[in-house]
Amino acid sequence: MNLYIHLPFCLRKCNYCDFISFPAVPPPVTARYLKALGREMEMAAYALRPGKAATVYFGGGTPTYLAASDLVGLVARVKDVFGLQGGAEITVEANPGTLTLEKLRNLREVGVNRLSLGAQAFKEGLLRAMGRAHGVGDIYEAFTWARRAGFANINLDLIYGLPGQSSEDWEDTLDRALELEPEHLSVYGLELAPDTPWGRSYSQGRLALPDEQEVVDMYWRAREKIRGVGYEHYEISNFARPGFQCRHNLTYWENRPYLGLGAGAASHWGNRRWQNLSYLESYCGAVEEGHLPAAEVEILTPERQRGDTLFLGLRLLRGVSLKEYAERFGEDLLEGYGRELERPFDLGLITVERGFLRLTDKGLPLANEVFAAFV
User: Fold this and answer.
1) Pairing state of beta strands 350-353 and 356-359?
2) CATH, range 2-253
3) How far apart are CA 39 and CA 165, in angstroms?
4) Hey, CA dihedral for 186, 272, 61, 197, is it positive or negative?
5) For residues 34, 266, 183 and 89, what is the CA-based torsion angle, rounded to 10 degrees?
6) Rounded distance, CA 247 to CA 53, Å?
7) For burial by CB atoms within 10 Å, which of 99, 147, 227, 360 has the most?
8) Which residues are registered as beta bridge partners of 91?
């Protein structure tokens, strides 16, 4: 079983963020939420009998906005309610400005073995413009503390295509990130949702972004530079040292079952997919009344499951195994999607290699155009 737990709290909302998160929430509200989260764990364990967790991922928001004692208590609750498989991967997302050496030691001692640091950029002006609650110095300090606390598996999140970000800025960010020698790097192009400060500014013509070709060049430069020092490019936006791929996120890309707990968390279980109520009051209220807080439940048709497996699997650089697909769905992938695949094949965006259907280098920056055929 793979478990995601949403902790929707942060110091302040970033200018590009459209995740379900609530800034500067007072302690009584977080206490109520954590109590409801513990109750949801118990109800989900009883209703679904999911078995022990192979991966646990605490996302947000900023999980490390919470006190160390709260996070330690959550990990202990997961162990008590679900149990952990041997060698379970336990990840906590963290804002560098919310960490102390003591908090990191507490997390490591309770069994958290993977830290995902939201560095995003290594230029003070860019961090301020983004609305981040940390500076460049906080990134270095947090990373150093994490190593001292015993973390041997650290991811850094980076963003390119930011307003005011030059190619030279991006090159410097990559250099500084690689100097820290993290085990994993996630490299994301900026995506602006309309209902965010930056999204509104952009739609009103008050925010300038790098041009499209410059953004594509930033992606290729990141790929060249990161692969050049020994990282494997294993997913469109993710790079890892050998043996350090994010096992939890592979669950999503391989379209395998996962259970999401907390406000707004999504789950995929059997032939159902659902999302929890998003607002704190509605989420907590439902759980306190003894109800699982699912807001929307979708029954996945066999056709939908096949399409999801294909477009999610194509995010992986290795692609989709033709053999595993046939075993899972009882049909030949290339025959079943012959019409949809014809144009991407003709354009050289996809290929079949060693029994896998995968994106070509040409197809990587055009992946969304390929995926559109299956969604």
Assistant:
1) antiparallel
2) 3.20.20.70
3) 44
4) positive
5) 60
6) 12
7) 99
8) 57, 114
Taking 80 as the threshold, does the pLDDT of residue 361 lie above it? Answer: yes
* Residue pointed to by tokens 């290699």: 353
State the Cα angle at 333 between 327 and 334, rounded to 5°. 145
350, 359 contact by CB (below 8 A)? yes
* Cα–Cα dist 14/61, whole Å: 10
Per-residue DSSP letters for 280-302?
HHHHHHHHHTT---EEEEEEPPH
For residues 38 and 77, the answer to whether their CB atoms sit within 8 Å is yes
Dump pLDDT digits (tens) for 65-104. 999 999 999 999 999 999 999 999 999 999 999 999 999 9
Query: Collapsing DSSP states into helix, strand and coil, what is residue 112?
Result: coil
Tokens for 345? 């094949």
From the CB of residue 312, how many other CB atoms can be counted at a distance below 10 Å? 17
Integer Cα distance of 264 and 251 in angstroms: 19
Helix (H) or strand (E) holding 191, with range, is none
Calpha distance 305→259 (Å, rounded): 17
Identify the residue whose tokens are 């500014």. Answer: 201
Residue 97 has a CB neighbour count (10 Å cut-off) of 20
Beta-carbon neighbour count of residue 157 at 10 Å? 17
Q: What would the pLDDT profile of 168-190 be if each residue is shown by its tens digit?
A: 999 999 999 999 999 999 999 99
- Residue indicated by tokens 């400005």: 97
Q: How do the domains of the chain map onto residue ranges?
A: 2-253, 320-371
Q: Residue 310 and residue 320: Cα distance in Å, rounded?
A: 7
* Nearest partner of 367 among 306, 319, 299, 301, judged by Cα: 319
Contact 193, 199 (CB under 8 A): yes
Contact 6, 262 (CB under 8 A): yes
Q: Which two tokens stand for residue 239?
A: 């790079």
Task: Average the pLDDT over each of 17-21, 116-120, 126-130 and give the range with the smallest value.
Answer: 17-21
